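Hello,

Our lab assistant flagged a job as stuck in the queue for most of the afternoon. It eventually completed. Since we weren't sure the result was trustworthy after the delay, we are filing this so someone can double-check. Below is the sequence as submitted and the structure that was eventually returned. Let us know if re-running is recommended.
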Amino acid sequence: MFISTVEKQLDAKRRIVAPAELRAAVAPLEAVFCFPSIEADCLEGGGQALYDAYASLIDEFPFGDPARTALETTVMGAMVQLSFDTAGRITLPESLCQQFGLTDWVAIVGLRDRFQIWPREAFRERMAGQRQIAREALVARSRLRLGGAQYAGVGPANG
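-- returned structure --
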């Protein structure tokens, strides 16, 4: 499981020290799978479970379906397997670093079964928007559950 957000600095060779929790989450594979995220302008990654989840999703579409081909091309075709060196670092491919502006400080964002790697400042900007969406989603969900009554402690007056 990948949780929390940590900021790390890429070195001159595009290496990043992977948090111990990330290394433990992918053990015994000793590697992570990374690819351009479909949902955001960042890298997405995870262990064997994430790879298997995408493979299963793709297999739900029949051969020849344009959605299957798009997913195979976008996810599997762009995916790289990155191994940890003896210091616990992974080296990000230059092409992916250039694509997403990963040049110095990055944010590694845990999303349970996967993680994202963002340029630090881009993630800070995204986080503000994500917090607002989360607040609105909680308020809407609480209204559905309580038949229109506002959930105690959640809402514009308390947020």
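-- support follow-up --
The delay was a queue issue, not a problem with the job. The result is valid. The helical segments are 20-26, 48-59, 66-76, 94-100, 120-145. The chain has a mean pLDDT of 89.
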